[in-house]
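User: Here's a structure from my thesis project, written as structure tokens. My advisor, Dr. K., wants to see whether a designed sequence matches the one we expressed. Can you design one independently, without my sequence as a hint?
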């Protein structure tokens, strides 16, 4: 190998090494910036999701109080109460599946007779039923639910009710005492909100809107105060009611701030419900999960092609000179 060839080889080798180092740094810097961008994105997104849910539940929190204070409710007339309920079922469809008014003995005296679509339901079997042992009734007539507030209970399953009113059988109870003009409790009004039509739908809609070419998968989860799953995306491995993986490790920090952390091949953001306005919330947590890695193949190929082109030009130029 003559001197000219040696110089050309050495020079091209140094160029290739420099470009290789530059390429590695560029790819790593790109990955770092993408990750920071994803963390900022998912943090803002999970806060928005939890806020939307809280705002919607705040509306339901106010609905039951308004219904309980209505003139038909105060009249104690079952026919008038049912007529109001039927009107409200249509006006708020598909939010509510059932409404009940209970007297002070714990007997159901009125229910809606139609669903949100106006079709008749088989609700007569609930009339006269004794619910005096139910927590929502006991608190509703106890005087502990102050004016301007309502009792809200966590999501639960009631397949018997679902068989009459439809839906997947997951509900939330919103309950308020019925008071006369002097403030005396005369009964209880309790609504059954369809959990899937409200909370699940908000989570699914938000996840769908957040998907992009860079973030093709967005998985939303809603946890109760203890970290048990009450909402999960279809196809998620974790079973309903199981404790969300890694929850205990970030729970305390998440009480005060939104936590973004890595778990496996995912970036997760977890935030706690703060309620909204008069609605205090139930201590729920919302989680959004997105892939932590994305392909840098386009950047790698761009750098490789640029490197080949530069080295080719350099080789030809130096070959001519030497």
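Assistant: Designed independently from the structure alone:
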């Amino acid at each position: 190998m003559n001197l000219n060839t040696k110089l050309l080889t050495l020079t091209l080798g140094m160029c290739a090494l420099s470009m290789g180092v530059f390429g590695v740094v560029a790819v790593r810097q790109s990955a770092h910036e993408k990750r920071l961008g994803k963390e900022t994105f998912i943090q803002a997104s999970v806060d928005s999701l939890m806020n939307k849910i809280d705002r919607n539940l705040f509306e339901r929190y106010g609905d039951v109080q308004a219904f309980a204070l209505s003139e038909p409710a105060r009249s104690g007339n079952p026919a008038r109460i049912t007529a109001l309920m039927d009107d409200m079922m249509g006006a708020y469809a598909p939010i509510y599946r059932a409404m009940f008014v209970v007297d002070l003995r714990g007997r159901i005296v009125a229910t809606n007779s139609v669903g949100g679509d106006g079709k008749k339901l088989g609700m007569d079997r609930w009339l006269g039923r004794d619910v005096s042992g139910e927590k929502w009734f006991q608190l509703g007539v106890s005087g502990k639910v102050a004016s301007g507030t309502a009792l809200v209970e966590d999501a639960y399953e009631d397949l018997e009710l679902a068989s009459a009113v439809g839906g997947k059988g997951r509900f939330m109870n919103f309950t308020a005492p019925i008071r006369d003009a002097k403030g005396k409790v005369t009964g209880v009004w309790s609504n059954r909100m369809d959990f899937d039509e409200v909370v699940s739908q908000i989570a699914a809609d938000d996840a769908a809107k957040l998907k992009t070419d860079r973030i093709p998968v967005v998985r939303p989860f809603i946890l109760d105060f203890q970290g048990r799953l009450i909402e999960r995306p279809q196809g998620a491995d974790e079973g309903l009611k199981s404790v969300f993986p890694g929850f205990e490790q970030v729970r305390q920090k998440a009480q005060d701030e939104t936590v973004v952390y890595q778990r496996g091949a995912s970036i997760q953001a977890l935030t706690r419900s703060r309620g909204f306005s008069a609605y205090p919330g139930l201590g729920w947590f919302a989680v959004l999960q997105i892939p932590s890695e994305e392909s840098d193949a386009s950047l790698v190929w761009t750098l490789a092609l640029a490197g080949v082109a530069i080295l080719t030009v350099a080789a030809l130029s130096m070959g001519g000179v030497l």
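When you compare it with your expressed construct, this may help: The radius of gyration is 30 Å.
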